[in-house]
Amino acid sequence: MPEYTPSACRRCGTCCRQGGPALHHEDKPLIECNVIEVMNIITLRRGETVRDDPTGTLITLDEEVLRLSLPDGSGCPYLQTTPLACTIHGSHPLECRVLSCTDPRALMDIYTTNRLQRVDLLGEESELIAAARYHDETFPAKHILDIARRIAKEIKHGMPKDCRQDIETLTDIASRERAFRMTLLEHTQIPSTHLPFLLGRSIPTLVTPLGLKLS
Ligand code: SF4
Questions:
Q1: Is 4 part of a structural domain of the chain?
Q2: Is 86 in the pocket of ligand 1 (CB under 6 A)?
Q3: In the chain, which residues have pLDDT < 70?
Q4: Range of 204's domain?
């Protein structure tokens, strides 16, 4: 186990730019009183590959994670850049409160415990959680990413013709998933800005890090 030297936060904003925190049950009151707005939460779905903050490695999620994020995933929406500041400082989430640049032990202690999920905010009886679960079963992130990785690999090796079937399958899934989102918006009162929370990232957004561009 490496030795760490405790130090005060220098408020450089580096961790906030790398990605907002995952949310825990302790953060639920911040959402209920609108300090944290739903439009600033993205659901990373089971099966997605994400960066594990304490280790910096890529992992595949076996449970969903709610995270503060800008729509393009480029950092925390509550980071003000000029002057550099956390705009909800004093009411910032649990992970931000325990994070230390030089000693990740406090973050690691709570990192995978008591994580908040969509059902905790929507309720078990909600029609929206039923829609989110249907979406997860119909458009599983792991299946989509497996197809996308095969396509990216073939393109990298200069053989895009060999993955024509995969391209057609992925295009079809993306089209049906987009239609699902549109139908949900038409039949509910939710604003489109809540879709990344309710359904996670769209398929084009999901496959972009693999170098794939879906319209
Ligand atoms: S909530 Fe504040 S401290 Fe936490 S990542 Fe966002 S800007 Fe940084």
A1: no
A2: yes
A3: 1-9, 160
A4: 123-209
